[in-house]
């Protein structure tokens, strides 16, 4: 039955020295390139290599030591030296008739999935960067329009992207425009205050413009106090206030 499944199975015996493999199915030999007789009697660590994450290895070792279930994604090596990302689940299985545990490992090659996910993450990051442009108004005043929803991840991208640009410029005042800001949460608000503090350290004053009634009501509902931020109803009002200060 195990031979007929598309999953990759490995069974090891922790009652023997070094917890050797006692069985692999055909899926394992097809995935790794090793023959059955080449792996039986060996510890699974032969699949590790120089780029295998040591923390993932330690997670597996600790779970085996405690006889606990564990799932990790780990970089493993095939017989020909090529790598693959292995979604590994290990389950300690007690065989009552023998009065002892065995470890059943179920493996799945997720290399293609990870590549697609990394590509998708890259696309999302590009979109996030494009949706947070720094728009210069004068030599010392710029506007940062925030468009759409913003969460902790996107706020971190904003901070990471904006600060280096400001360091290379002569900006004294940054207007953060929230007029197209669709929603707010606590993490995003913390990020806005963090940006304000970081800009202050660099000698840049941050103004908030375009706080919509919807966002203001949502902020109050989250017990978020926006009053400590210098805010204006629109970018135009913020620019007029700047002109009066000059």
From TrEMBL:
PAC domain location: 68-122
Give every PAS domain span. Answer: 1-67
UniProt entry keywords in alphabetical sequence: Chromophore, Flavoprotein, FMN
SMART domains assigned to the protein according to its UniProt record, in alphabetical order: PAC
**What InterPro entries does the database record attribute to this sequence?**
PAC (IPR001610), PAS (IPR000014), PAS-assoc_C (IPR000700), PAS-like_dom_sf (IPR035965), STAS_dom (IPR002645), STAS_dom_sf (IPR036513)
Question: Is Repeat included in the keywords of this UniProt record?
Answer: no
Q: Which domain of life is it from?
A: Bacteria
Please report the stretch or stretches of sequence annotated as the STAS domain: 131-242
Which PANTHER family is this protein grouped with? PROTEIN TWIN LOV 1
Name of the protein described by the UniProt record: PAS domain-containing protein
Which organism is this protein's natural source?
A: Paenalkalicoccus suaedae
Q: What taxonomic lineage is listed for the species of origin?
A: Bacteria, Bacillati, Bacillota, Bacilli, Bacillales
């Amino acid at each position: 039955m195990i031979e007929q499944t598309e999953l990759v199975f490995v069974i090891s015996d922790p009652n023997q020295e070094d917890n050797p493999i006692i069985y692999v199915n055909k899926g394992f030999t097809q995935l790794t390139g090793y023959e059955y007789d080449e792996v039986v009697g060996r510890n699974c660590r032969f699949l590790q290599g120089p780029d295998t994450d040591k923390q993932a290895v330690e997670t597996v070792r600790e779970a085996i030591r405690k006889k606990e279930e564990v799932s990790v994604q780990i970089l493993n090596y095939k017989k020909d030296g090529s790598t693959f990302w292995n979604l590994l689940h290990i389950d300690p299985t007690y065989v009552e008739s023998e009065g002892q545990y065995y470890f059943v490992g179920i493996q799945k090659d997720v290399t293609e999935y990870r590549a697609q996910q990394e590509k998708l993450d890259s696309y999302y990051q590009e979109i996030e960067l494009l949706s947070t442009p720094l728009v210069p108004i004068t030599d010392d005043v710029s506007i940062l329009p925030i468009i759409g929803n913003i969460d902790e991840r996107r706020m971190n991208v904003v901070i990471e992207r904006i600060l280096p640009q400001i360091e290379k410029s002569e900006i004294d005042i940054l207007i953060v425009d929230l007029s197209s800001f669709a929603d707010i949460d606590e993490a995003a608000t913390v990020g806005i205050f963090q940006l304000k503090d970081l800009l202050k350290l660099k000698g840049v004053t941050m103004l908030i413009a375009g706080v919509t009634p919807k966002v203001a009501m949502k902020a109050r509902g989250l017990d978020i106090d926006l009053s400590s931020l210098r805010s204006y109803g629109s970018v135009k009002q913020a620019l007029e206030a700047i002109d009066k200060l000059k």
